[in-house]
């Protein structure tokens, strides 16, 4: 399935639910298809569609697992709130596997506007705590941030960004703030799952060849702010 097809399928499913409950409100039919934890399907279905369209990755794997744990908890299969208690260890296990299986990224040392340089492999973690890396006068080429029950604040306003680069952020029950210099362009690709991504960045350059910062943000019960 192509990404456009995934969007169509997901949109049709949501529309179908809207029509069904709207018809029930007007008394056109009287059928009930709700079940305990039905709302978890709005987490599971988009993640499954993402797996079918682009393969398994950290984003859709964690989202699917969290949705399934919530569903099993609400169905009583996992009792005494065990489903919610297992979310954090599940995320840690998947995160660990993602580190073990991650392939190293090679970075082209030459300027390459228009082709994302990717990450040098720099990782910044915040687990039950805070991390505020400051990149003053640093030749920044990309990074990965992980905020799990914690917060990461990337201070890039004084960084030197000469080429296109990527920042991948993973926020689970936490917060991520990215502060960028104003002489770059920004593209944000977000996957919020019961979370949010707020892009408040305002570019202050008119240069046509300004470097682009691509930010891919996954938020699960958390938030990411870009300014």
In short:
With 227 residues, the chain is an alpha/beta fold.
Can you describe what's shown?
The protein is an alpha/beta fold and 227 residues long. The chain has two domains: 3-101, no CATH class; 123-226, no CATH class. The chain is 32% helix and 26% strand. It contains five helices and ten strands. The protein has helices spanning 3-25, 41-54, 58-74, 82-85, 87-101; strands spanning 123-127, 130-131, 142-148, 151-155, 165-172, 175-179, 185-193, 196-199, 212-220, 223-226. The strands form two sheets. A five-stranded parallel beta sheet has the order 1-3-5-9-7, with no helix packed on it. The protein has a five-stranded parallel beta sheet with strand order 2-4-6-10-8, with no helix packed on it. It starts with a helix and ends with a strand.
Please describe the structure with a list of short key phrases separated by commas or semicolons.
227 residues; alpha/beta; 5-stranded parallel sheet; 5 helices; 26% strand; globular
Write the layout of secondary structure elements.
Blueprint: H1 3-25, H2 41-54, H3 58-74, H4 82-85, H5 87-101, E1 123-127, E2 130-131, E3 142-148, E4 151-155, E5 165-172, E6 175-179, E7 185-193, E8 196-199, E9 212-220, E10 223-226
Parallel strand pairs: 1-3, 2-4, 3-5, 4-6, 5-9, 6-10, 7-9, 8-10
The gyration radius over C-alpha positions equals 20 Å
Domains, number:
2
Q: What is the N-to-C succession of helices and strands? A: HHHHHEEEEEEEEEE
- Coarse morphology: globular
Strand ordering within the main sheet: 1-3-5-9-7
Give the strand tally.
10
Our estimate of the beta-strand percent is: 25-35%
Task: Estimate the mean pLDDT confidence.
Answer: 79
Biggest sheet layout: 5 strands, parallel
The portion of residues assigned to helices is: 25-40%
Output the number of helix runs: 5
Low-confidence stretches: 105-112
Structural class: alpha/beta
Through-space gap between termini: 34 Å
């Amino acid at each position: 399935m192509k990404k456009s097809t995934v969007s169509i399928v997901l949109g049709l499913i949501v529309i179908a639910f809207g029509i069904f409950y709207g018809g029930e409100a007007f008394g056109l039919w009287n059928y009930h298809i709700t079940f305990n934890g039905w709302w978890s399907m709005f987490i599971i279905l988009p993640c499954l569609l993402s797996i079918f369209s682009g393969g398994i990755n950290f984003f859709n794997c964690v989202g699917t697992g969290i949705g399934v744990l919530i569903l099993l908890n609400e169905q009583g299969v996992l009792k005494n709130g065990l489903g919610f208690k297992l979310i954090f260890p599940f995320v840690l296990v998947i995160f660990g596997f993602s580190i073990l299986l991650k392939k190293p990224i090679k970075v082209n040392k030459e300027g390459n506007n228009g082709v994302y340089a990717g990450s040098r492999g720099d990782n910044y973690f915040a687990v039950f705590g805070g991390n505020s890396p400051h990149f003053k006068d640093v030749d920044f080429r990309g990074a990965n941030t992980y905020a799990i029950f914690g917060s990461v604040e990337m201070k890039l306003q004084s960084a030197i960004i000469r080429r296109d680069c990527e920042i991948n952020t993973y926020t689970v029950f936490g917060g991520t703030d990215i502060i960028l210099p104003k002489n770059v362009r920004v593209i944000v690709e977000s996957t919020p799952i019961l979370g949010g991504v707020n892009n408040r960045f305002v570019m202050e350059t008119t240069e046509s060849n300004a470097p682009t910062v691509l930010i891919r943000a996954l938020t699960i019960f958390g938030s990411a702010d870009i300014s």
